[in-house]
Structures are given as structure tokens and as C-alpha cells.
Amino acid sequence: MKGFSPGVFLRGMAMGAADVVPGVSGGTVAFITGIYDELIESLKAVNIQALQTLFKSGPAAFWQYINGWFLLSLMLGVVASILSLARLISFGLQEYPLPLAALFFGLILASALIVFQQIPESRRQLVWLICGAVFAVAIGELRPAELNATPLTLFLSGALAICAMILPGISGSFILLLLGMYKPVIDAVKHFELVSLLCFVAGCGLGLMLFVRVLSWLMHHHRPPLLAVLTGILLGSLTIIWPWKFDAEGLLLSESLAPGWQNVSPWEYAQHADPQLLVSSIVAVLGVVLVLSLERIAKP
């Protein structure tokens, strides 16, 4: 009989840490650690049939139907990571933004390679890959909106952001940033503002239950095009997480998305601030090695 899984819990912690950072997706972590398909199918199983199973056959059958131990282990890891790492990630974004961005750049680049290797060779898939890349680049070109943090906007932001969080390559935190809701949500986590958190979580729950069914259908019926689009999204999202931006002056995405920012080379960036090129390059390579190692471990 299955029980609590420390391995899945650790994967959940990695997903939670990724989802806190604008530009990095928890879905990417799920994909490279080999639990993405199981996650989608387990979430999809939380439906009317699950409730019928609960009433007809009891809690044990219901728990088995929804793959409860897997979901519980994963969600506990995500929540523990967000609650414990929100301050740490926020500190890292402010104090060590360039190496941190370089690390995530390496992680995403290696993730794109892993997903790409699963796509059957076809010119049609190449077209889908390009579409995904264009979509991600277009998202990156958008600028933050100004929304007031009300229960309704928190609910709607959660519903939209969770769809991005579960997709490899699309960052839910970045979507929140574009909506102007990133700081209110992070502050709500830091200060445990219960009402705000409940509104946001309720939106996440609704968005997840609706979107996961679409994603599951695509995984079963159009897997090659979907993987091609996801690969393109991962590659396109590299423009979002690129460390060196003209107006950043040492700040990462959460602080540097003012109108007019643009990616520049490290040498152009050096005219404004220390590009930390050596450290950032080493950290990026470590990110690539880490992902490829995780994929090799998780493959069996």
C-alpha cells in the first residue's frame, strides 16, 4: 500500500521554489523529474466520479481513486517550500539577482533539451515549436499592469496564474507580475494574510480543475505538437529570465520590468554595473548539469 513519499515531497519543494520566481515554472520541475504525466492525471481524477466513489465505496477507495498519497506528498512539499522560501527567494532576487537568473537560465535551457528529445522528428512539429517560442517572447514583451489587490482580482489572478504554473516554461509568478499582483501575493504569504490567501488559493483551485482537463486531453491526443509547443515556450522564456537588462543595474525581473527594459549583452551591461560574468556562467552550467542529472536519476 502506498504512503507518504519523501521523493515526491522533495519534488514538490522544488516546484514550490520555482513557482515563487518570475520566469521559472513549477511545471518544468515536474516534467524534468518524471512526475508530470502522473500529476496531470491525478489532478484530473479530482472530479464528480471521485465524489461518487467516496459516497459509494468509502474514503479508502476515494483516496486511491485520486492517487491521494501522491497529491498529498506533492502539495505538502509545494506549500512548505513557498512558506519557507518566499523570504529567501525575495532576498536572493534583491541581493544576488544575476547569478540567480543565470541559474534559472541554465535550468530552463536544459529542460528545453529534455522535452525536445521526446518529440518525433517532423517539420510540422518544428512549426509548433516556433509558435510556442513566439508566444513566450510575446508574453515577455508585455509590461506590468496596475490592478488593485481586491478579493476578486486575487481570485481571478490565481485562476490565471495556476494555468501558467502547471505548464512547463510558463511562469505563474511572471503572469502575476504582469498583472501587478506579484507583490501583493508575496506579501500575503510573508505576513500570512488569511483572507487574501484564501481568495488566491480558491482561484488557483478553480483554474487548476478546469485547465488540467484540457491539458490531459492534449497529452493523450496531441502529445507531439504539445511537446513541441512546450519546447518552444521554454526556449522563448529564456528571453524573460536573461540576467542582463539595460535598466536592471543588478536587479532581476521582479524589480526591473519597468517600461523600456531590454536584454543586452554582458559587455553592454558592464557599462552600468558589474555583470558578474564568470560567476553567472559557472552557475548557469551548474543549472544545466543539475537538470540533466535529475532527469537521468528520475528516468528509471
Automatic annotation (TrEMBL):
Coiled coil ranges: none
Pfam short name (any one): VCA0040-like
InterPro entries: VCA0040-like (IPR007163)
Transmembrane segments: 62-86, 98-119, 125-142, 154-182, 194-214, 226-244, 277-294
Alphabetical keyword list: Membrane, Transmembrane, Transmembrane helix
Domain of life: Bacteria
The protein's name in its UniProt record: DUF368 domain-containing protein
Organism: Zhongshania marina
